[in-house]
Amino acid sequence: MDAIAASSANGATSTLPKSSSSTSLASAMSSDKDAGSTSPTLCEQTGPLDKEIDNSHSREIVLLDLSPEDLDISHALGDRTSKTIECLRINRCRMDGATFASLVGALCAYELPCLHTVDISQNRVGGAQAGAALAKLLLHAPAVRFLSLGWNQLSLGDLKDIVPFGSGTHSIQCLDLRANPLGIPKSKSAKDNLWVGALVAAMPHLTHVQLAQATIDDSLLVTLLYALVTQSTSLEYIGLEWLGLGGRLATVRSIMSGLIPSDPKAPVRSLHLNLAANNLGDSGVKIITESGAVLSSLTLACNFITERGTRMLAKWLPTSGLTLLELSDNYFGDQGIAALLATDGQYSADDAPRTRLTSLGLNSCCLTDTSLRMITEALAYNWAPLTSLRILRNNRMSPGAKVNL
Q1: What is the pTM of this model?
Q2: What is the pLDDT of residue 24?
Q3: Residues 218 and 251: beta-carbon distance below 8 Å
Q4: Which of 77, 118, 131, 257 has the most Cβ atoms closer than 10 angstroms to its Cβ?
């Protein structure tokens, strides 16, 4: 048997076995890029983000922490040819819609065939003028795949202009709308919100959509998510963190109903739904587990889930299609683990795995050595084909606690 040392305190590392089939516990090497944080990084930046960045040999145009009047595309481009530029980043510059429109006008004077990333997050961009400018930029640079608009003042309606005329579409794969006032529709009528479907249809290659911390009306959110799920066949990730859905459980019910497969025999869709930090509680878990929804990955971290909630999850897991479940920062303790691992008593190690889980997150769940013992026993009886188990920051575990496989 392989033995894996568990981390019981911050900064501790796991002892990883050489066997690739063994369960690995989260360590410093796999914390941030694990399933609990699958949102894409639009434009990697190594080193400190200083105002004075040497762009002379870079394929990026980077403007950070500048005053709006100091934003100069020509100066930032310098002697480089625009045809090699791949990434445009304008962050924390207090840029509003008018300033953005002016910059887009300057950008469109250059050829940008390789531009694939546009990151204008953390500004003040918003309004119809911003939407028109964004449409102009996407038309001029059709290779853009990563579009980060987070922490601005955009409403969803501002993006109407990016819907191209005729049958044209955009190449956008990752769309970041976090912390925007996405808005309240003028009408509750589904007919009057048909433009949302047209907006999604204009981006048929979408794989990741981030809506965390956005302000959005329930009906508009449900309409948008329904369009995404039904029209975006390549969709892999929907981020809905920090939306206060615990106080909007009817909306949670509508969201989950949109994930019920039309064909029960169809393969499980590879979709990660992130509902972290929504105060869902056990009532939210009840809606999720009784919805009939099928998806591959679900994040329920930081949702005040108790033993009652994990018991409901245990009953749902065999039919849910889940291969990844993130439950970190729910303080259900050993009783919650006992409920999660519960079986009908008729299960044996010779049976097929009871669940499809290959990844389970249990960081900061007030677990003790008892939980590790229960997990070890459950895996011995083929409860799940786990390859990743994250149990950091459970300070009640002893330093020498191990999971025996």
Answers
A1: 0.86
A2: 38
A3: yes
A4: 118
